[in-house]
Amino acid sequence: MTGRRGRPPRVSRDEIADAVVTVGFSTLTFAAVRENLGVGETTLYRHAPDRDHLVRLGLDLIITNADWPSLDGDWEPVLRSYACAAWNLFADHPGSAGEVSRGVVPFGIMRLLDDLCAVLMRAGFSAENAVLACDVVFDLVTDNRRGVEHFDAVSSGSVESESENSGGENPGTPRQLLERAWSGAASASEESATDVERDAIHTAIHGSIVAEPYAWFTGKLEVVLAGVRHALAPRDSTPSAD
Q1: Could you say which of 6, 44, 108, 194 has the lowest number of CB atoms within 10 Å?
Q2: pLDDT tens for residues 41-84?
Q3: Is 133 exposed, middle or buried (0-12, 13-18, 19+ CB in 10 A)?
Q4: Contacts of 193 by beta carbon, 8 Å cutoff, 6+ apart
């Protein structure tokens, strides 16, 4: 007599989200999530039909569990604090910024943007300007964080090309390659910039490359917030201190 088959293993959406975060966004695959959960392909596909669905589950989990700043107060420090919190959240979960920047937007992000836009509208922004302000600020957050991860990772393409010129030795990360290039950059043509100006520019560029990433991000953020204040905020809005 043939024995009855056991009930197939069950898995919840929360368990899948936990597995996604455990595996990590940078190395996320269906196979890795299945292995983490100990379930078969059919079981996982029942809850997540494609990789983007896995990403959304993981992003929603980290956003929901994050310790977000207060929404109380003037619009500018609130927007600044949320931008910094998002940058640090992405830093804690490598690869997450890249997923968001390619358009994988979970419900948690939409809810946060609703809340932030409401803060700006209560300060006198139109709905259109509130959305534009948040979009500009969080484009900076995701693009900057994704760029940091690219510069600090070894790129196989750049490594292969540079290795040919360095005796096969690993030349390092793109950030290290740029640092070496700009630290020794010299003018090879007669253009409008003088040697003194060019030296100052190269020194500043080299400084931006070796700067602590979060400090460089917050410097950019202040420029963007000044633009929001000038171009989008209601005219009677005054700059707010932290």
Answers
A1: 6
A2: 899 998 899 999 999 999 999 999 999 999 999 999 999 999 99
A3: buried
A4: 187, 201
